[in-house]
Structure formats: structure tokens, C-alpha cells
Amino acid sequence: MIDAWTRLVAWLGDNTVLPFLRLLHLDGLSGDPREIAAALLVAALQIAIIGLLFRPLETWKPAERWTDRRLTRVDRQYTMWMLLGIFPLFTYLVLTPISHLFGGGGDADGGAAPTFGLAAWLPALRAHPFLLFAVYYLAYDLVYYAMHRLQHALPWWWALHSMHHSQRQMSCWTNDRGTLIDGFLQSMVLSTVGVVMGVGPDQFAWLMLLGELGQNFSHTNTRVGFGPLFERIFVDPTFHRLHHMRADDRHPGLHNCNYGQVLSIWDQLFGTALYGMAPRPTGVGDPTVDADNHHGLIGLHWVAMYRFWRVVRRRSGWRLGEVSFGPDYAPVPVVHGAAHGHAEAWEQAAATSEL
Ligand SMILES: [Zn+2]
Ligand SMILES: [Zn+2]
What we know:
The protein has 355 residues and is mostly helical.
């Protein structure tokens, strides 16, 4: 199986990607064209799974009936751009060179004994590649959870991440809705985990694929859940849909929940898990952010980057806490328990926002 994969990657790299890179005069760079081929194949696999499995699931058992299907189109376009263009190129130009720079490869594929990383610190794990991979994944998922908390709590990062949340009709395509800066920061944080643990480039690609597929599934518009036992371990669509709920002043703070990527254990451990609620409307109440829905692919990217630019330069853009964006993009702290103040801040922002 692994052999067939390697042969397919080699064939595609030599016969398709390399001629294309030559055409663009990019073949002299240090990366290996086969890495682009691998990323493209993984992307094709991912899109096939979304299209053949997750989409039919949404038709069969929707969590909510969409009133304006048009809104989902921009997320699908984003996914195609990210998976088939930007991400393979980013892997080739940035992620793989970083991994090679740090001698990434302390993996369980055999070869020389690693001198760095998890397999070097715990040599016993080298004999159990699946267990080693599970430990890698556990650490990767925990870092994702911590980073995601920060994406909500750090105002300038929320200015970016809020674009992921502004979709009012969340679907299996919503996972890749995000700005390039946000994607870059996330990749840097997560690949640092890979470097520190000594994960080889191939294994890191599988870690990411697992995380991404898990997230494509958890964004699907379905009522599917994993049942009382497995939902305590893994994130299912019901769990992540609650993370995307629109804030409700009658239940302040309820939306600050379910940050996990693939494992729901971290939310339970750190007290942010929410179970047993019916699906709620998704999106962001802050009108400055909700205005994202008026834009197409390029416009959406532009307004989110502009929001980030206006927030990151302010001192208040660095003060931890939940915020909405008031006039002139000033972060307005959201005070739970004073729900009226929250609503007023939004109304004021709506009245004065240029968007
Ligand atoms: Zn989030
Ligand atoms: Zn999400």
C-alpha cells in the first residue's frame, strides 16, 4: 500500500509537476517536486472524501435547512484554492524546507536511529510505530486546542479567525475558510510541534491530513453524532456546530465552548465542553464581522485582512479577552453577565460601521 503510494507520487511528480515547474522556471528551487505531487494527491483524496461522503450526508440528514444556499459557494471556492493551489505550494516552498533544516525524520520508518525528538527521548516507542504516531497526534491535537483558544481570546487573531466563524451556513466546505495570514500562523505553530517532536515530513503530512479530514467532517451540516461514549473522545459535527453558534444574549458565554480539533478530551479536561444542546444558528453576532457575508472570495479575504490590520496596530488588539469590533475597528470587550452592554456595543458598532 505504502509502496503503491510512493510509486504514484513519484510518477505524478516526474511526469506532471516537474514539467509544469520547468514551464514556470521554478524547478531550480531546493524542494522536491514529488512533495508537491504528494500534497496534490492528498488534496484530491480529501476533496473526493468531502464530495462523495460528507456532501451526501448533508443532504440525507441536515442539521439545519439552508435558506440561502449561495452563502456556501465562497467556502467551496476557498477549499479548492487552498487544497489544490496554495497549500501544496506552501508545503513545497516553506514547510518541507523547514522540516529538512531541522533534520526532521526521527520517525519510525526505519533508517538511522533518531538523535532528536520523541523517538529519541522514548526509544521504546520506536518498536511501536502506531503507538508513536498516536502520541504524536495527541500532542499535535493539544497544541491545536491551545492555539484555537488563543484565536478567540487575542483580539487581532480573532479579527482573522472571526472570518472562519462569520459563515451563517456552515457546511463541509467551511473548514478551509480562513485568511492566508491565519493559515500561515496556524501552519507555523503546528509545524513547530512537528519539528520539536522530530516528526518526519511524510508522517507530518499524515498528521495534518487526519486533522483536516476530521475538521471537514465536523463542519458538515449534519445531525450525525458519535454517540454517548465516542463523543467524549472525538469531535463530531454536533459538537463543532455548537462551537460555531451565534452568541445569544439570553445565554451569555454559552458560545465559548468546544474548541477541540479532532479530540474532544481537551475541552472536558479544561472545562470548555458543551454537550446535549440542539443545533443553534451559526455565525457571528458582531455586525462588523457578519458583514463578511456580503463578499465573494477576494472581497472576503480583503475585509478580513483589513480588519486584522486595523486591530493589530492597537494596544487593545493585544489585550486578552473576548471582544467585538466597535467603531473604527476598536476592540470592545464583551462582558458576560452584562448582556445589555454587549448588545449596545454591537448596536453602536452597527450604527457607525462603514461596512
Ligand atoms: Zn473557532
Ligand atoms: Zn470551525
